């Protein structure tokens, strides 16, 4: 579905209640489905990716009902999960695929799983390598590097694993396999990635401890159901944080946005670049902090984004690249090679789309060099069927000279189904 967007003719003002966090919504479904008892999930993200996780567990025999943005999960414990009658379809969702491989590897039956063309090209061997060390058996073409895969459930044994990639999905897959492996499983990472799995598993009664970059989980027969309140997704809020920062005179408030330290790299970068951000009404539920963010434009300067901050803002790099085109000086992004294996190669997609609008960006192996400030003309933009690339182009249209025409906006429903309603409310 093509979409034409006109530039904004005035500054942006108003409030947005951003939808629920995608990472936390996935985990709430998974842990609720594996727990004993009823789990209610409030402010669940009704996006396509999270619905893939819901459907996967329904196929495994779990009763899950949705009423508005509330989920009701009737869990009967990990041992009650049943062999699915059909193949599991993970669509476009890397999180569903990788975490489910961790769950399915230790179950006493065989599951067949596949994804859409984008997910089929994303590496699964990064998850299968440690899982195979635990005793997992998987069959697929290319020795199980990519979906489709058949997971032949096996009794698993604990391992000590050091992550070779900075990936919360790999860490989570190993911890979830560790949940039904004999012994204590330990995962060590080199930079802290999002820790929602650790935080939420603890709330569901698992024996899990983190100490700096190392997390240890002990095998657990059953999790205990607990209600989850999902904060707003900072990765979705990011689009409006940047919108307010690039349209002169704007001021926006984003309500109940998740503020977990492993996710707030974008706030650090925005503040460094000269954007004014205030946080009010801070609260914490289930170990996840959230609050209201008010953002106001300031004079933007370039920054260097590298090292340990990268996993704390990995999904926000496309929209940060747009922001950097409006900052005085050269912004350098390094250590972000993971962007090459997302829904599309995001280094290449961002560079092509923004240079097509008139920006001056050089792609590097592991990031981008962005020369600012450039005015953006607008024009046609490919979305590469990547929700974050499509939303980046939509936000860019606020400041382009001409209209922006995005070839296909259907991918936005993956993480932010109400994106255009929210954009129209403040525009
Ligand atoms: O664990 C998660 O929920 C996610 C982890 C990140 O992926 P990687 O683990 O591949 O870095 C992120 O990009 C993705 O959107 C969600
Ligand atoms: C990379 C993303 O998600 P996933 O890996 O779950 O497909 C994303 O949402 O930007």
TrEMBL record:
Keyword annotations for this protein?
Amino-acid biosynthesis, Aromatic amino acid biosynthesis, Cytoplasm, Transferase
- Keyword Cytoplasm belongs to the record: yes
> Which positions fall inside the Enolpyruvate transferase domain?
11-423
- Please give the pathway this protein is involved in: Metabolic intermediate biosynthesis; chorismate biosynthesis; chorismate from D-erythrose 4-phosphate and phosphoenolpyruvate: step 6/7
Subcellular localization is given as: Cytoplasm
For the ligand (phosphoenolpyruvate), the binding residues are 22, 94, 122, 169, 346, 388
PROSITE patterns per the UniProt record, alphabetical: EPSP_SYNTHASE_1, EPSP_SYNTHASE_2
Q: From which domain of life does this come?
A: Bacteria
Class in the EC hierarchy, top level: transferase
From the UniProt record, which GO molecular function terms apply? 3-phosphoshikimate 1-carboxyvinyltransferase activity
Record: residues binding 3-phosphoshikimate: 22-23, 27, 167, 169, 315, 342
User: What is any Pfam family matched here?
Assistant: EPSP_synthase
Q: What is its EC number?
A: 2.5.1.19
Q: Which catalysed reactions does the entry list for this protein?
A: 3-phosphoshikimate + phosphoenolpyruvate = 5-O-(1-carboxyvinyl)-3-phosphoshikimate + phosphate
- Family annotation (InterPro entries): Enolpyruvate_Tfrase_dom (IPR001986), Enolpyruvate_Tfrase_sf (IPR036968), EPSP_synthase (IPR006264), EPSP_synthase_CS (IPR023193), RNA3'P_cycl/enolpyr_Trfase_a/b (IPR013792)
* Location of the active site: 315
* UniProt record similarity statement: Belongs to the EPSP synthase family.
Which purpose does this protein serve, as stated in its record? Catalyzes the transfer of the enolpyruvyl moiety of phosphoenolpyruvate (PEP) to the 5-hydroxyl of shikimate-3-phosphate (S3P) to produce enolpyruvyl shikimate-3-phosphate and inorganic phosphate.
- Complexes and interactors: Monomer.
Record protein name field: 3-phosphoshikimate 1-carboxyvinyltransferase
Q: Which organism is it from?
A: Oceanobacillus kapialis
């Amino acid at each position: 579905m093509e979409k034409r967007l006109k530039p904004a003719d005035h500054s942006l003002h108003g409030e947005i209640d951003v939808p629920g966090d995608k990472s936390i919504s996935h985990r709430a479904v998974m842990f609720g489905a594996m727990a004993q008892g009823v789990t209610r999930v409030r402010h669940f993200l009704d996006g396509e990716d999270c619905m893939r996780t819901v459907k996967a567990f329904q196929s495994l025999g779990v009763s899950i009902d949705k009423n508005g943005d509330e989920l009701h999960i009737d869990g009967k414990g990990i041992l009650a999960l049943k062999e699915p009658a059909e193949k599991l379809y993970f669509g476009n969702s890397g999180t569903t695929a990788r975490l489910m491989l961790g769950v399915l590897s230790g179950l006493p039956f065989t599951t067949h799983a596949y994804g859409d063309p984008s997910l089929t090209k994303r590496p699964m061997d990064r998850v299968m390598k440690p899982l195979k060390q635990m005793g997992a058996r998987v069959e697929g073409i290319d020795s199980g590097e990519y979906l489709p895969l058949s997971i032949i459930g096996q009794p698993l044994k604990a391992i000590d694993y050091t992550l070779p990639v900075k990936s919360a999905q790999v860490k989570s897959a190993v911890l979830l396999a560790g949940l039904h492996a004999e012994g204590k499983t330990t995962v060590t990472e080199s930079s802290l990635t999002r820790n929602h799995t650790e935080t939420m598993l603890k709330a569901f009664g698992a024996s899990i401890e983190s100490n700096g970059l190392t997390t240890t989980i002990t095998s657990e027969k059953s999790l205990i159901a607990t209600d989850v309140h999902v904060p707003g997704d900072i990765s979705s809020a990011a689009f409006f944080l940047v919108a307010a920062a690039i349209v002169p005179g704007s001021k926006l408030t984003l309500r109940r946005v998740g503020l977990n330290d492993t996710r707030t790299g974008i706030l650090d970068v925005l503040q460094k670049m000269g954007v004014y951000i205030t946080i009010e009404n801070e609260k914490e539920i289930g170990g996840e902090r959230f609050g209201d963010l008010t953002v106001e434009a300031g004079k933007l300067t370039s920054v260097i984004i590298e090292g340990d901050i990268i996993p704390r803002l990995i999904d926000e790099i496309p929209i940060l690249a747009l922001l950097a085109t409006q900052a005085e000086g050269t912004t350098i992004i390094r250590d972000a090679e993971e962007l090459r294996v997302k829904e599309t190669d995001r280094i290449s997609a961002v560079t092509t789309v923004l240079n097509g609008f008139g920006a001056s960006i050089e792609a590097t192996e592991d990031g981008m060099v962005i020369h600012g400030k450039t005015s953006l003309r607008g024009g046609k933009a490919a979305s590469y069927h990547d929700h974050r690339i499509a939303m980046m182009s939509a936000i860019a249209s606020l400041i382009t000279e001409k209209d922006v025409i995005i070839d296909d906006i259907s991918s936005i429903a993956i993480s932010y189904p109400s994106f255009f309603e929210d954009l129209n409310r403040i525009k």
